[in-house]
Amino acid sequence: MRYILLLTVVLASNAFAAPDFDETMAEANQGAAYAQFNLGVMYDNGDGVPENDAEAVRWFRKAADQGYAPAQFNLGNMYHFGEGVPVNDAEAVKWYRKAADQGDADAQFNLGNMYNVGKGVPENDAEAVKWYRKAADQGDATAQYNLGVLYERGNGVPENDAEAVKWYRKAADQGKRTAQFNLGVMYYNGDGVPENHVRAYVWLSMAKTQGYESAKKAVETVKNLMTKQQIAQAQALATQCYESDYKDCD
Question: Which fold does the domain 139-250 belong to in CATH?
Fold first, then answer.
């Protein structure tokens, strides 16, 4: 079974390292959107001020109303998770879309999830694919993985194992262990790629080294089908792959 991975959580970084609260408040009161956003982050995290979700929402909204995409994304998350405001997925979608339309990859990913599960909008696999692809094209590894799952299942796009492999590989190269596992399984079964137990072993091993439970048994399963020479080759390639931070895995 392949699983879709869900929402990206609140963006908790700010534009500057450890901004001063009083200085940030002064700039925010003058209408600077980046300062309003930073102030929201400070209230959200309890950084230099007591944690206060309602105040975080208030300042995120001020920045979001000025079109500041990171604030729009965070405001969407506050509505989705019910932090400082009642849970309202339709409002979450509204703010995710505003940020996504400006090219915010996290918002594009979350909007894809909302369409995928039918929260705040009617479930629509084609729309989920559309927004996952936008995030995936910007290098979002989880979006790449999810896009691979949708191609493998044929949800929102025609079923296409070769495309699934393509997107799993992009995510696997970034260290996404679920994608590494699925890519190993595709090589094991010969789905979308020629069957190749050596490559299956390599990618399943990468997932295993990251603690992915399902990979532990899978590695042993494929190993039992290999010759000693193939095992030695696979182990050497797995070491090369791991030590290169997944940049030299072929």
Answer: 1.25.40
pTM here is 0.90
Name 30's Cβ contacts closer than 8 Å, sequence gap at least 6: none
DSSP 50-88: ---HHHHHHHHHHHHHTT-HHHHHHHHHHHHHTSSS---
Give which of 139, 136, 146, 114 is closest to 127, Cα–Cα: 114
Q: What is the CATH topology of the domain spanning 21-107?
A: 1.25.40
Q: 194-238: per-residue pLDDT in tens?
A: 999 999 999 999 999 999 999 999 999 999 999 999 999 999 999
- Domain regions of the chain by residue span: 21-107, 139-250
Give the C-alpha separation, 122 to 115, whole Å: 7
| Higher pLDDT, residue 2 or 119 | 119
Tokens of 231: 């095992």
The tokens for 187 are: 């090589």
Whole-number Å distance between alpha carbons of 75 and 66: 13
